[in-house]
């Protein structure tokens, strides 16, 4: 599959495309037997830069959400109605020349409560239709098994990933979809941005609001461990069920730079980076890295290992490593090392500009990231998210989003440099080829797409799809395999 084409081109067969998540595009939150998910109970943020809204679920707000049968306060329930527009949307992806489309399967469409004895056939059929549509245009699916949601039933019953029981529930789901879609899907990912489990609910499905930071840390890292084991078991299942398919992990990569050349700052940056790369260290190398022993001891975190966990992790590393890339951060020895790992809350870099939401833009950092990760792991890499959230204006039926083109061009140029440096790069799925609901703020107006969707923050609009300027630009990028930027 991968053929190096040194020195300045992207390899032949490079997978160009875009990425979305079920809970941000599908809508149809209560259609065809789908159960409620953790994403369906997240209220719209009051503050448009609020990163924490997706985790602000406590027992009280959960009760309110469960009783609410509307989508008024829960925009992820409505998405952009991909559930009913998938043919039109995939046709537009095909028009741009997509080679790959990354999307997630909503677990609660297949197992509405997470632990039924038999799967929901209507849910399986929906993804059959999506796969058929992609096959029509020779677009490879890249499927995320868990993208920021799980059946809310498992939160209520066992506090989500905080419980080991969730491993078996998840792996029943993965076995069903691997068997059902065998031979039709070459690329799978287990957990989207698994490291954001350290932020809480949206990734762990465990309600820990109101606990002390120490208790939260304990619950979150244990949830991570349970996801590691579930991911390794899924890897084993896939390799047995469909030996031609490949499976990867997925990290929200955030490179940390030292604030100054003072060696103590360099150590602080290295430590912050280790905390970010811990996740891929485990999933790619199959064991916990030594530096985490010290970290856990210093923070009084105790990870409960099942009898066979170490062996399962060791025997089932991932085939490739994928990550999202939005920004880098800066730290110094004077700052709290933990804060440096948080998106948009780390130190500012005076050399970089930022988006309307304060995310610092660092194309060169993508090259640094790719080069370092290739050195560290020597496994194929896949950039599965990168993009610019911006306020777009629709004028006379057009969106002139030159700023988005600039952003993507600069990042793709740096990817090309990394490929020339020798990095094995499988592909690039930019985030949000079609406008969708923002993860962090649940807003519609934070747009990423090549395709504009006529819907506002309150859910009003025709849902009409409109090609932006960037749509035509990306088409030319793909047609020229990244030569014509
Ligand atoms: C990543 C998530 C996506 C996505 C993206 C952009 O962290 O994997 O789900 O939404 O970030 O973030 P936002 O929507 O908050 O702008």
Automatic annotation (TrEMBL):
One of its GO terms (biological process) is carbohydrate catabolic process. Keywords: Glycosidase, Hydrolase. One of its GO terms (molecular function) is beta-glucosidase activity. The keyword Membrane does not apply. InterPro entries: GH, GH_1_N_CS, Glyco_hydro_1, Glyco_hydro_1_AS. The keyword Hydrolase applies. This is Beta-glucosidase. It comes from Lacticaseibacillus thailandensis DSM 22698 = JCM 13996.
């Amino acid at each position: 599959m991968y053929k190096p084409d040194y020195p300045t081109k992207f390899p032949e067969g490079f997978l160009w495309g875009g990425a979305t998540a079920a809970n941000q595009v599908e809508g149809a939150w209560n259609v065809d037997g789908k159960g409620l998910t953790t994403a369906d109970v997240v209220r719209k943020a009051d503050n448009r830069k609020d990163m924490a809204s997706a985790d602000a679920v406590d027992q009280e707000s959960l009760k309110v959400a469960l009783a609410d049968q509307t989508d008024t306060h829960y925009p992820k329930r409505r998405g952009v109605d991909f559930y009913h527009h998938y043919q039109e949307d995939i046709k537009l992806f095909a028009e741009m020349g997509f080679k790959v489309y990354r999307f997630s399967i909503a677990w609660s469409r297949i197992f509405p409560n997470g632990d039924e004895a038999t799967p929901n056939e209507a849910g399986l059929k929906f993804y059959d239709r999506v796969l058929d549509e992609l096959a029509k245009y020779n677009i490879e699916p890249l499927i995320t098994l868990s993208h920021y949601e799980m059946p809310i039933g498992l939160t209520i019953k066992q506090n989500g990933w905080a419980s080991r029981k969730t491993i078996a529930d998840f792996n029943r789901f993965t076995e069903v979809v691997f068997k059902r879609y065998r031979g039709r899907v070459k690329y799978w990912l287990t957990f989207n941005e698994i490291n954001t489990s350290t932020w809480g609910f949206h990734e762990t499905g465990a309600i820990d609001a109101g606990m002390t930071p120490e208790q939260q840390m304990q619950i979150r890292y244990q949830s991570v461990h349970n996801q590691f084991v579930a991911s390794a078991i899924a890897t084993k299942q896939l390799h047995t069920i469909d030996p031609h398919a490949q499976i990867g992990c997925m990290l929200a990569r955030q490179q940390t730079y030292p604030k100054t050349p003072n060696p103590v700052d360099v150590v602080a940056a290295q430590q912050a980076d280790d905390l970010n790369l811990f996740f891929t260290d485990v999933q790619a190398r199959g064991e916990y890295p030594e530096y985490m022993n010290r970290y856990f001891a210093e923070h009084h975190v105790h990870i409960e290992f099942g009898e066979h966990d170490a062996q399962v992790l060791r025997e089932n590393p991932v085939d490739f490593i994928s990550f999202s890339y939005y920004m880098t951060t800066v730290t110094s020895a004077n700052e709290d090392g933990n804060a440096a790992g948080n998106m948009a809350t780390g130190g500012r870099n005076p050399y970089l500009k930022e988006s309307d939401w304060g995310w610092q833009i660092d194309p060169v950092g993508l090259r640094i990231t790719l080069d370092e990760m290739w050195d560290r792991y020597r496994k194929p890499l896949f950039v599965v998210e990168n993009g610019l959230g911006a306020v777009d204006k629709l004028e006379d039926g057009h969106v002139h989003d030159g700023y988005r083109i600039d952003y993507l061009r600069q990042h793709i140029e740096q990817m090309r440099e990394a490929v020339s440096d020798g990095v094995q790069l499988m592909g690039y799925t930019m985030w949000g080829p079609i406008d969708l609901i923002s993860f962090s703020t649940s807003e519609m107006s934070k747009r990423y797409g090549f395709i504009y969707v006529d819907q506002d923050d309150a859910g009003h609009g025709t849902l009409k799809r409109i090609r932006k300027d960037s749509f035509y630009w990306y088409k030319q990028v793909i047609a020229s395999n990244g030569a014509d930027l």
